[in-house]
Amino acid sequence: MKRPLQHSARIAVLFLAVSAQAAQPDTAVRNFIACPIVRDTASVPCWLAEYQGELYFLTLQTDVSAPVNPPWLGHRVLVEGRRTDKPRICGGIPLEPVHLSVIAEPDAACNQILPAEERYNLTFEPPRPPGPSGGRLAFNTLPMPAQAGPVKSEPQHYTLNYDFNGLVNFKHPFQLAPALETARAMTAKRVEIVGYRGAALLSDGTVLQEQSGLAERRAEQVAELLRGAGLTTPMYTVRWVETPSAPDGTEDYRGRHVEITLFP
C-alpha cells in the first residue's frame, strides 16, 4: 500500500515543480514608462529609452507608414517590449517586438537629445516607396486591396489593436480597409463590433488600467468610420466590454482592441 502513495507523492512533487517552472516570469520582458531620448545620426534620428540603468533602442524616426511609430519629445512613453540579444542600435539594446504608447499628459522633463556620434551612423532604408505618406483617417483616398480568392460564405473576423488609452490613429484605416473590402464583396448583412479596454502590467509590478468608457468609444468610432466609408447597408450591432482582462505583462497590448465580425 505504501508504493502507490509514494508514487502519487512523487507525481504531486513533479507537478508542483513543473507548475512553478511554468509560472516563472519572462525575464526578457521590459514594460516601463520613461522619457524618450532622441539620438541624432548622420542619416536618421533614433529613439531610445532608459530603464533601470540600461539603454534600450525603440525605433527610428520614420513616418506613419512604419510598423512602429516614434514617441514624442515632451511626453513620456509606455514601452512594452522584449529584450533581444541582437547588436545594439544607437547604443541601445533592441526590443522586439515593441509597442509604444505616448502618454498624453505633457512632461517638460522629456527633452533629452543626444548629439550624433560617428560610431552610431546608420544605413537607413525607407520602409515604403518615395512620395507622400498615405496615412490618413479617410477611406475614400485609400487604395483598396484586391479581393483574393472566392468570397467567403462564413463570418469573417478582424481585430484592431490600440495604443494605451488611444483611439483611432493613422494606422487603423489601413487595418480597416480589408474588412471594408470584404464586407462589400460578400454583401455583408450584419456587422458586429465589440470594443475592449485593457490593462498593462509593468516590470516593476505596477498595473495600469485604461480610462473607463474607452471600450465604448472605440467600438462606436469604428462603426462611424465604416458607415462613413459607405458601408451603410448592413445592420450594425455595436457593444463593448468595460472590464479589462487581468494583465500578465507579456502581450497586454492585445487586450486593448476592437473585434469586427462580418456576417454574410
Can you walk through the features of this model?
The protein is of the alpha+beta class and 264 residues long. The chain folds into 2 domains: 29-120; 156-263, 60s Ribosomal Protein L30, Chain: A, CATH 3.30.1330. Helices cover 19% and strands 31% of the residues. The protein has 3 helices and 13 strands; from the N terminus they run αββββββββαβββαββ. The chain has helices spanning 2-22, 172-185, 214-228; strands spanning 29-34, 36-39, 46-51, 54-60, 75-83, 93-106, 113-114, 156-161, 190-196, 199-201, 207-209, 235-241, 257-263. A 7-stranded mixed β-sheet has the order 1-5-6-4-3-2-7, with no helix packed on it. Strands 8-13-9-12 form a 4-stranded mixed β-sheet. A two-stranded antiparallel sheet has the order 10-11. A hairpin with a 5-residue loop joins strand 10 (199-201) and strand 11 (207-209). The longest helix is centred in the N-terminal third of the chain and has 21 residues, at 2-22.
Strand content: 25-35%
Low-confidence stretches: 1-24, 126-148
Cα distance spanning the termini: 63 Å
Backbone structural class: alpha+beta
| Widest sheet, order of strands | 1-5-6-4-3-2-7
CATH architectural arrangement of the largest domain:
2-Layer Sandwich
Rg from C-alpha positions? Answer: 23 Å
Q: For the report, how would you describe the main beta sheet?
A: 7 strands, mixed
The coarse silhouette is elongated
**What is CATH's topology name of the largest domain?**
60s Ribosomal Protein L30, Chain: A
Give the strand tally: 13
Question: What is the N-to-C order of secondary-structure elements (H for helix, E for strand)?
Answer: HEEEEEEEEHEEEHEE
Q: What is the tally of helical segments? A: 3
Instruction: State the helical fraction.
Output: 10-25%
CATH superfamily of the largest domain: OmpA-like domain
What's the domain count? 2
Average pLDDT across residues?
A: 83
CATH class of the largest domain: Alpha Beta
